[in-house]
Design brief:
Neuraminidase; 5-stranded antiparallel β-sheet; 4-stranded antiparallel β-sheet; globular; binds calcium ion
Length: 408
């Protein structure tokens, strides 16, 4: 995903499929459609979605219902009592929702007046949340009430560019990530393109990892202190070869991947010099240290498709999905904005080998692109719903939260 000014990101930016893809892939008018278009399986079965759900592709074995309508629904967390908190960065609000059966009703604003409020975490009775320039927390209550007081723990983080901040509070500190100010800026000497670990009071910090482009959510693998996150790949990979965005970009359309990374203290993850599995970007080919940078880059433990825009994600533990999903990851992919043909726009399951505990495959659960590549939703975050174990995912284009339910 490219950085966009706050307030503009919710707008769908994808053009419709160009008429006649031969014109879109100059030099290869024979390129088959199925190379350019995502291979969404046939069988858009309307029985797999409720009447008020758009014409998504839904994996056989599941169905999708509408759970809530909420403007600008971005990230989601739930507390122990089942209150759902949803961030609305442009409004600067974190909204509370309560479930009534299979749908949600508004239960008031938890906080207002925090523009760019985005990342959230519930820990020990507090809701930690981020704005672009800071980290805050407020006490939660049951039944839900607006926060009586917000503690600002950290201010002064760089604003603008990739403005989304992650938050992962632990017993001895908190992690946050700061992305590139643009597409491929060399910001090695700045605070950006890094994951930081701060003391709980925000007064001291240590560098955790570097070479990050835009990681919006950090989580420990359950039961461990291993830190993971998705990182969104850069744009215009083929520009130096003469590509023209939107008309003739055969290289960029397929490069680089979005990444799922294990972030180890002290390690470097490549950005902006090296993408995916240690491939240098053309812009940096003549750097005298490019091979050294490639050698020091930790490759992703999984590569998602290019421009899929991996946003929120979660490790699955107990869920309605069954034991087979335990230890897997679910990812909400917001979808491409500048690929010739749209890609991403999905809820994807990243499957972990149960013995060696590493990813071995990924599986499409729901595509929010229609049969004609129409955009019906842009997924932002995903959550296992307390009490039911269903999957919820948010959509900041249609201002909705959907529920994915396994067939009984
Ligand atoms: Ca990387």
């Amino acid at each position: 995903m490219i950085f966009v000014p706050l307030g503009a990101f919710a707008a769908p930016t994808n053009a419709a499929i160009p008429a006649g893809l031969g014109g879109a892939v100059q030099g290869r008018p024979d390129m088959p459609l199925d190379v350019m278009i995502e291979r969404i399986p046939a069988g858009y079965d309307p029985a797999r979605r409720a009447a008020n759900v758009p014409a998504f592709w839904v994996r056989p074995g599941y169905h999708v219902e509408l759970a809530a309508k909420l403007p600008e629904a971005r990230f989601m967390v739930a507390d122990a009592s089942g209150t759902l908190y949803v961030s609305q960065p442009t409004a600067g609000t974190i909204e509370m929702l309560r479930r009534s059966g299979k749908t949600y009703e508004k239960a008031g604003d938890f906080v207002t007046g925090y523009p760019s409020a985005h990342g959230m975490q519930v820990k020990d009775g507090w809701l930690w949340f981020t704005t672009s320039d800071g980290i805050h927390r407020a006490q939660i209550s049951s039944p839900p009430k607006p926060a009586s007081q917000v503690e600002t723990i950290l201010t002064g983080l760089p604003y603008g560019g990739h403005w989304w901040r992650s938050i992962l509070a632990t017993d001895d500190g908190f992690f946050t990530s700061i992305g590139d100010s643009g597409n491929i800026n060399d910001l090695r000497s700045s605070d950006r393109e890094k994951i930081w670990k701060y003391s709980l009071d925000g007064k001291t910090r240590e560098l955790w990892s570097s070479g990050i482009r835009n990681t919006e959510k950090l989580l420990f693998k359950p039961g461990t202190n291993e830190l993971y996150g998705c990182d969104q790949g850069s744009d215009n990979f083929g520009k130096n070869l003469g590509e023209v965005q939107g008309r003739n970009q055969p290289v960029t359309d397929f490069n680089p991947p979005d990444e799922f990374n294990k972030y180890v203290k002290g390690d470097f993850y490549g950005h902006p010099f090296v993408v995916g599995n240690r491939i240098p970007r053309y812009e940096f080919m003549n750097n005298p240290d490019i091979l050294q940078l490639a050698a020091s880059t930790v490759p992703p433990i999984w590569n998602f498709g290019p421009h899929w825009a991996a946003d929120g994600w979660i490790f699955v533990q107990d869920s309605a999905l069954g034991k087979d999903f335990y230890g897997d990851v679910l990812v909400a992919l917001h979808g491409s904005w500048n690929r010739t043909v749209k890609a991403g726009y999905r809820i994807e399951r990243l499957m972990f080998d149960k013995i060696i505990k590493e990813p071995f495959g990924s599986q499409l659960l729901v595509s929010t692109l229609g049969e004609q590549n129409e955009t019906f939703a842009r997924p932002v975050d995903v959550l296992i719903e307390p009490g039911t174990g269903d999957i919820l995912f948010s959509d900041d284009m249609g201002n909705r939260i959907f529920r994915i339910i396994p067939d009984k």
